[in-house]
Amino acid sequence: MKKYDYIAFDLDGTLSDPEHGLVEGFIYAFKKMGISDYGDRESLRRFIGPSLYEVWQEEFGFTKETVVDAIEKFREYYNIYGLWDNKLYPGIKEMLRELKSRGKTVILATSKPQDTARKIISLFELSEYFDFQGGASGDTRDHKWQVLSYSMQAVNALPESTVLVGDRKYDAEGAKICGIDSIGVLWGHGSEEELLASGFTHIVATPDELLEMLK
Description:
The protein has 215 residues and is an alpha/beta fold. 44% of the residues lie in helices and 16% in strands.
């Protein structure tokens, strides 16, 4: 089994489950934008994980200016209420603690805005386990591969010994662009079919399986 010294983590659907707070924020934004055909609550889970700039432009045909307006409305709700409506997946803190005890360099690479992501990491008292916490920054660092590249550069990570852990196809795609391996987790928001079709290097079902793989 290949040895990885640098472990990059996605946030939503990988470390924590933000579903309820995010979905409420999506509904708030769509209502503010006068959009009524966004589907039911279950279908809104498709927006958890990817860059909202990208998927909302594709989904609703927004212009660049309109999607910025929609995301600002989403944040009106999310930054006050939704941010806290979040829960850590079982076994995550213990997994991160063990990775650090093994001497791994652990980084965050999320499409969430960097300041918001760091608030969530702090909320769950996980900051001590990360060597760097990277997130999105508007137009200059929005796509997964851009955030991943930024986080890797911050710790001088070597691509051949770096792996990204995530739960959606966007994570696998970002890892491929950056030339690194990827591990898909089945406890998040991506189905097994999505993970298999996305070309993750490995797929695991539990944090314990992930730890076994990252020896």
